[in-house]
Amino acid sequence: MAEAVSDKGFKAPVTVAITGASGAQYGLRLIEVLVAAEHEVWVMVSKAAHLVIATETERELPARPERLVQALAELTAAAPGQIRCFGREDWLAPVASGSGAPSAMVICPCSTGTLSAVATGASNNLIERAADVALKERRRLILVPRETPLSAIHLEHMLALSRLGAVILPAAPGFYHRPQGVGDLIDFIVARILNQLEIEHRLMPRWGASEGGESGGENA
User: Fold this and answer.
1) 25: in domain
2) Is residue 29 part of a domain?
3) 83-85 and 104-110 as β-strands: parallel, antiparallel, unpaired?
4) For the Flavoprotein domain, which residue ranges apply (predicted)?
5) Which residues contribute to the annotated binding site for FMN?
């Protein structure tokens, strides 16, 4: 991923959409790490995701984009202007059009409903439209489903999206790094997402490297 710096002084923007699957912690941690890596972050949160976040965490994020920006900035210690939030029907957002500023997109977590909509090009809300744009413009699109067991419908949609160039990255953390807590399991998945985005990080060492070694892709 290019490390170009925008006129705001941030690295290339990354779009993060949080939908109503379990695992909101993955998306929130991803935003935090992207902010720390000095990337501009464009955020969308589905209606169902607000309920999941309130259920799974001690936070209740506001729905209005301007208030959501403030809440996420406080949560991640973001610089002014580093986080932008868009409403579910903000069709003037840059992610809604191929002529908008290019941006990699991560749907984390990705509900099976959103997975289905993206696979079929439904585009009923901004998250679905932004993913559709990413596909048609051949931009990087990463979906992080968190569902089990998976039906044939889910698997067929994942296969269709993979064939279209999307990356299907299930929220299935490994244990070979001997996690000491839930945070280590969350970071395992976030590290894999950053690897796909080609963003340097130190959440986990490379396979076979020492704990203090350079982090990156999994080679096993």
Assistant:
1) yes
2) yes
3) unpaired
4) 14-197
5) 20-22, 46, 111-114, 146
Say how many domains are in the chain: 1
The kind and range of the H/E element at 114 are helix 112-120
Q: For 90-123, what is each residue's pLDDT tens digit?
A: 999 999 999 987 889 999 999 999 999 999 999 9
Residue from 150, 93, 141 nearest 119 by CA: 141
Determine, yes or no, domain membership for 76.
yes
Tokens coding 219:
């080679």
Task: Report which of residues 171 and 204 the model is more confident about.
Answer: 171
3 state SS of 165: coil
- Residue 184's Cβ-count burial label (10 Å; 0-12, 13-18, 19+) is middle
The answer on pLDDT for 210 being more than 80 is no
Annotated binding site for dimethylallyl phosphate: 176, 192
Residue 1 lies in a domain: no
Which residues carry a binding-site annotation? 20-22, 46, 111-114, 146, 176, 192
Residue 13: which of 39, 44, 31 has the closest Cα? 39
Q: What is the pLDDT of residues 156-192, one digit of tens each?
A: 999 999 999 999 999 999 998 899 999 999 999 999 9
* CATH number of the domain encompassing residue 187: 3.40.50.1950
pTM over 0.85: yes
Which structural domain range is residue 77 located in?
11-197
